[in-house]
Amino acid sequence: MKFANFPLQPGRRQTAALAAFMLLQTVAAVFFVGDAFSDLFDEPASPHSVFEAFIAFVLISGIFLVGWQLRITLERMRDQERALETARGDLSRIIETQFSEWGLTPAECDVGLLALKGLDLAEIARLRGAAQGTVRAQLTRIYAKANVSGRHQFAAWFVEDLLDDGIAVREPA
Amino acid sequence: MANRDSSSQGAGALSPPDPWDPLVRASHWLIAGAVIANGLINKPGGTIHIWIGWAVLGLLALRFVWGLFGPAEARFTAFLPDPRAAVSHLLALVRSKPKEYPSHNPAAAIMVYALWGCLVAVTATGLVMTGARSPVTIAEEKAAVAAGDWSVLVNADNHDGGAEMTGFREAAEEVHEVAANLMLVLALIHVAGVVVESRSLRRNLIRPMVFGRVRNK
Q1: Superfamily per CATH, domain B20-132+163-205
Q2: Helix (H, G, I), strand (E, B) or coil at B17
Q3: A65-A67-A72 Cα angle (round to 5)
Q4: Which of A70, A117, B111, B144 has the most crowded CB, counting CB atoms within 10 A?
């Protein structure tokens, strides 16, 4: 809930900045090329014209580069959003399946989900309009059914598979 | 993937598209501002008028390049002109049952091309009227004349090529005015269209053009 609008924010500011810069650069290029055009036209081989042509070329390729970058960023943002949606869906499906395998009751499923989201006892009790004692009892039953020692192991049960086994145990030298 | 695609096509109403990338948005509002400034506010033919016209030239060129290489919704291929689809969209709008489209709807697409056509006509004829001299050159000439050096005007006239050119330039002026007025009328219709479409789709179509993708999940 806290991170509902998190994924897009950083990329959005970046793309807006890129677009603004690209627009400025284009307008600048138009003015420059417009001004240099008569020089280029009248004496294309003079050092002045050659230099102006070079600057115009660099300016315009800069615009294309920024545009390319902007497009890549936009596509990447879209991919991430899609992947995140898929991952969200997959994770909740996995959790649901596991809960039913453990034989949790619907009420226990809700409590278990809230516990996985990181809510503490008081918050879960408030959200469900139940006494804290009830929630504590439900959690205990959940841990027993899942055969875990407590909340940490319960949460780790789902995270474990997401992590690579690349965690190097650092040996003291 | 296939699953997601079918869901996004089938249930357009559930996840409305928010197709406008920052470049499309920025160029849209800048051009809108430029049209208002040059069409209604500043002095026609004045220095500011010409500066803004040149800036529009750049914005338009950039938008056209973006229409070839930009993201899918910004590309011309996403909203090719299709008069028949446009008419059927308008009919659906009258029956207040319009469909959702990933980019411009077909009627709006026609409007986009009409407005672009006007912009191209206005800027091109504007260039003819000023002899394609850049705002910098014009400003320098004005400064020179103000300082008492009238010779720049003679040079400018020679550069332009005599009586034949004058007739051409008058025609350009005519086109410039007609296209500019037509564009203002089209812009009004465009705004009206957005309001009507927003009402009948029951969602704010102006918001995504201002803020881009807004997910309120």
Answers
A1: Transmembrane di-heme cytochromes, Chain C (1.20.950.20)
A2: coil
A3: 95
A4: A70
CATH of the domain at A108: 1.10.10.10
Domain ranges across chain B: 20-132+163-205
Domain extent, residue A68, equals 9-87
Q: Tell me if chain B has a CB within 8 Å of the CB of A86.
A: yes
State the DSSP string of B74-109.
GSGGGG---HHHHHHHHHHHHTT-PPP-SSS-HHHH
The answer to whether A146 faces chain B, any CB pair under 8 Å, is: no
Q: Which of A87, A121, A152 is the last residue of a domain?
A: A87
Number of structural domains chain A divides into: 2
Distance from CA of B137 to the nearest CA of A (A): 7
Residue of B nearest to A79 (CA): B1
pLDDT tens digits, residue range B18-52? Answer: 678 889 999 999 999 999 999 999 888 888 999 99
Report yes or no on whether pTM surpasses 0.80. Answer: no
ipTM above 0.95, yes or no: no
Nearest Cα to B32, choosing from B9, B59, B10? B59
Which of A5, A8, A19 is facing B22, going by the closest CB pair? Answer: A19
Using alpha carbons only, give the angle B202, B204, B210 rounded to the nearest 5 degrees.
Answer: 165
Identity of the residue in B21, B135, B215 whose CB atom sits nearest the CB atom of A31 = B135
Q: Is residue A124 part of a domain?
A: yes
CB spacing of A4 vs B217 below 8 angstroms: yes
Of A5, A22, A82, the CB nearest to B23: A22
Is residue A96 one of the residues assigned to a domain? no
Contacts of A92 (CB under 8 A, 6+ apart): none
Nearest CA in chain A to B132: A34
